């Protein structure tokens, strides 16, 4: 009989989407900024779906991400992220921050990148628009000059003209054009409550307003040409596609397409979709899809070719906690515990137990949802907030449930856990990492980041460091780590090798020998997202397919194709020391019956929206899910309700 704990205990909740930016050179890479200051990097995964490759940022005292901007500097990919007080620059190839810029004479309202990629226009709450440039040598942002201060209104948004000769600014009272060459106003016309701008061509701009209407202006004198209205509340986001269609949305979350007539040059309604439940705050497009997001925390991808058609249902991308934010262990008495994290909060739970003395439930596999009578209920034992400035990247509990740890980018903190006394004591502070995990014998803690692997011995209070090796292929750069697996420690052969495998944001699986403290091999893949798992010395690399690699023999020993599944695997657990269970956020569980001969996959139906899973020493399976309908949607703020014919 398999005991399965299905937990909905997480205090982590998704954050509103405040920025979406599609990579200009690689249209299947998307940066999604959120209200909690984090940035999710999505890459196309399989079957035209996207998956999170890595999460950047996340500071306890930082504000929401106002803007994300992709920037190409020489041969490297850069990402500019903007909050109310800072401009950050990230090297996307290594997923590391390379610049933090502050002091703008007030809070940042909005930022726009020039079309030639050489300048940033920054609108501040002091009513001044500043120009920043990128240094030619290192690509860092540096101040250049400022336009004269606006004397009336409040800045709301800004954009560059197509020839970069003007910066167009929208305020709550005026539409203003600034000449970059003369550093003075080129026009200033009254246009109330502008909330969004969209440059159409070198001569025209579209302005979204708080009243829900869109006005069109020429850029020489700022004169209004026409007006169109479909929304009943403020426009927050607009984007131009193919030079002839504008997509717009906002506080009224209806996605609307306006198209310009090729003969009369008038704009007309050309389709609408209401897929979001709450305010839409951000949007961008690639050649296939319109990506939108806002208060409801879900990113939607809507097909452009079939926009507005009844059968064109958008693909939903819900945000879930990282699988590395949950870990389980069990004490000598058989009691199971779980530690989970939510940004800057740690929770330790004592999991429930069942009365398995009921004869009718003997030998029943609870994976299929058969419930046992409860003998002991779940209870929260400890909760505390960390003092670190950064958000928690990963947590880990030792298999024997005596210790646990959490890591940020700067520090890893190790604690002794006493369930009888219900207390924790910090015993060690180590270097930071992207992900952490205990060995199967609970004697070592492994910390992995893009530069090194640290193996800390709890028994001897010693640590060894293995520098992360670069591949012989110079194009492969060691990047941030998003998955870690450690081979089981042998209980029969003393001194047997223990291996660690890492998967980074550049889709490279790297294998290390922890016992001999050496790098073994890099295994490049074509996976944008992957989960790793060891079964003895066989490493399972799971992405759009399953690759099996025997690390002791340095040999590829098999591969498997999943049946069509639109959801990436989030966790892998071993069942009865033989079967492997592959969990994803969908309602299908894939099971390999014999891990030593991975030839066939069984499919079972399970609860969906699972973001993590684990198994205790006594083979109790713990799965964690975040149910949007029950746990997320009821906590969202009120939204505008529209009467839809036939539904109200």
What does this structure look like?
The protein is mainly β and 648 residues long. It folds into four domains: 17-242 and 278-284, Methylamine Dehydrogenase, Chain H (7 Propeller), CATH 2.130.10; 243-277 and 285-319; 433-561, YVTN repeat-like/Quinoprotein amine dehydrogenase (Methylamine Dehydrogenase, Chain H, 7 Propeller), CATH 2.130.10; 567-638, Thrombin, subunit H (Beta Barrel), CATH 2.40.10. Helices cover 1% and strands 52% of the residues. It has a four-stranded antiparallel beta sheet with strand order 2-3-4-5, with no helix packed on it. The radius of gyration is 27 Å and the shape is elongated. Residues 357-370, 471-476 and 644-648 have low confidence and may be disordered. InterPro entries: UTP4 (IPR046351), WD40/YVTN_repeat-like_dom_sf (IPR015943), WD40_repeat_dom_sf (IPR036322), WD40_rpt (IPR001680). This is WD40 repeat-containing protein. One of its GO terms (molecular function) is RNA binding.
